[in-house]
Design a protein that fits this description.
Order of helices and strands: HEHHHHHHHHHHHEEHHHHHHHE
Mean pLDDT: 90
Strand content: under 5%
Strand order of the largest sheet: 1-2
Radius of gyration: 25 Å
Low-confidence stretches: none
Number of strands: 4
Number of domains: 2
Number of helices: 19
Structural class: mainly alpha
Length: 385
């Protein structure tokens, strides 16, 4: 009697592809909802039953251990693109992170100090100690054997695709490309970017720049046209009583009723500070760059907008030199950058001092003679919470 090469279940080609897509997407859903938004940052609280479903599936389908994943990710945020970052393209090079990102992750996960310093608050029950952490590869072994039993020869390909998905998408795409290419809605010391069109594959993780700007947010989409598939699942689980949202990134609201700078203005600017700085780049820095220098005549060099908008911590030495030359040559740009630095200083002050300094900042901005800066200062009281 011959053994069927199709295993216990024979499917059409699209059926095998659909099953593989389902196992991968369930794994990614566990990563983004359970490991990332719930365990690492706490912006989302999943029901204990749902937590365990994801914890089991991640161990079963990818050998992921909660404490290790969380610790490595928290360390990444603590040292984003600086020495100590476990998988930064800026530190290790893009090629290595894309093709060896999984090895970098495992090296960090094997470091006891990383686990001790960044893995606190993760599950430490009997199952975690005696099953998941103690036998981390047992789950994936059973997972692979089950595929071979159910799908036969086709199961070999399904296992290969499944096992390659997490290193390729999570380690290579998110940790690699999402720190090298894509668009940046918010400038910060991290090189994180947003990627498209990976939304249907990565559960919202492709909105990496937004996540670094608002790490605790349970919703990664910030701009209204962005789609966070993970957030759609959160809304479903919330409706079923299986999830609770603790915090989401603010989306600025504007009011026409309040015209004076007051304590409410300061609170609104504090809450929306990342949006305020983004608006400053778009409504002040870039308009000034697009026009010939007001008093020095002649168009600015093509690299000027990128140099002026980019966070200073991300500029290489040669870029810093060109920026210094640019600011020395064009007074209007130097003043625009100085005003931006003054605005950023507000976040370091108490509410009372911040209000005083904000009024002084707006007064000087309106009298600066720079049209875009004057209009920006006049619009600040419209920010609401």
């Amino acid at each position: 009697m011959s053994v069927s090469p199709y295993g216990l279940i024979e499917l059409p080609v699209w059926g095998y592809a659909l099953v593989t897509f389902f196992t991968i997407q369930t794994m990614f859903l566990g990563v983004t909802l359970y490991l990332h938004r719930d365990q690492s940052h706490g912006g989302l609280i999943l029901h204990p039953a749902l937590r365990h479903v994801f914890r089991f599936w991640l161990w079963f389908s990818s050998a992921a251990i909660t404490k290790q994943w969380v610790a490595v990710h928290r360390k990444h945020h603590a040292h984003a693109d600086q020495p100590g970052d476990p998988h930064s393209p800026k530190i290790f090079g893009l090629r290595r992170v894309v093709f060896e990102g999984y090895e970098l992750y495992h090296a960090a996960a094997a470091d006891p100090e990383t686990i001790r310093n960044y893995g606190r608050g993760t599950p430490d029950d009997w199952l975690e100690r005696h099953v998941y952490a103690a036998h981390s590869y047992l789950g994936i072994t059973v997972f692979s054997a089950l595929h071979l039993l159910l799908f036969g020869v086709a199961g070999i390909i399904m296992i290969a695709v499944h096992l390659a998905a997490q290193p390729f998408f999570a380690a290579g795409i998110i940790n690699g490309l999402a720190h090298a290419v894509g668009y940046r809605s918010f400038e910060m010391p991290s090189t994180a970017t947003n990627l498209v069109p990976w939304g249907l594959l990565l559960g919202g993780e492709e909105l990496h720049n937004n996540h670094h700007a608002f790490p605790r947010s349970a919703r990664f989409a910030v701009q209204r046209w962005e789609v966070d598939i993970g957030w759609l699942w959160i809304r479903l689980f919330k409706a079923l009583g299986l999830a609770r949202v603790r915090w989401v990134a603010p989306r600025p609201r504007f009011t026409s009723r309040r015209r004076e700078l007051d304590a409410e203005t300061v609170k609104a600017l504090f809450v929306n500070r990342m949006h305020v700085l983004r608006d400053y780049s778009r409504r002040v820095v870039l308009p000034v760059c697009r026009e010939p220098a007001r008093r020095e005549h002649g168009a600015l060099p093509p690299s000027a907008p990128a140099l002026l908008v980019r966070h200073p911590a991300l500029l290489a030495e040669e870029a810093r030199r060109r920026l210094r030359d640019l600011l020395e040559k064009y007074e209007v740009l130097r003043r625009v950058i100085e005003y931006r630095e003054g605005l950023q200083q507000l976040w370091n002050e108490t509410e009372g001092r911040a209000l005083t300094q904000l009024r002084e900042w707006c007064s000087r901005a309106e009298a600066s003679g720079i049209g875009a800066l004057r209009e920006f200062a006049q619009a600040l009281p419209a920010y609401g919470r």
